[in-house]
């Protein structure tokens, strides 16, 4: 976040609250605050995914100046990126949800999770949400910033962090 020009203060930008329904967290663009729903987060790995998911939204808000409230495609893109990069669609999570497949399953999961996230925050039809996701899917699915890769597990997350640390060294030699 700091490299993108957005300072983060954990006391100011994170809030733990009780939430209605089964929502685990959210990003409040008006205050640039991540809300963690303490009553709906089941364990540490769930919290890690929620924090990562919401940090992707915060990163997008900073980097891309997302117009959350009037441009559904902006929201759809950030939801695709958050589902793709946060671990929402890990094999373990999908087996736990009793959803699994072999061909293009990660992409299908990302698409489905993005649609569900949009429907959770917008009063629109499923068809409208699907259309928005379809319009942005390819470019947003392939945007792995700030990680540079999809961190499927802790090993890939360490690789992504190493790549990030070495990024300036690489670009300095070009």
UniProtKB/TrEMBL annotation:
Main EC class the enzyme belongs to: hydrolase
Coiled coil: none
GO terms, molecular function: metal ion binding; metalloendopeptidase activity
Keyword tags: Hydrolase, Metal-binding, Metalloprotease, Protease
Domain of life of the native organism: Eukaryota
CC annotations in GO: cell junction; cytosol; mitochondrion; plasma membrane
GO biological process, one term: mitochondrial protein processing
Official protein name in the record: Mitochondrial inner membrane protease ATP23
Organism: Ursus maritimus (Polar bear)
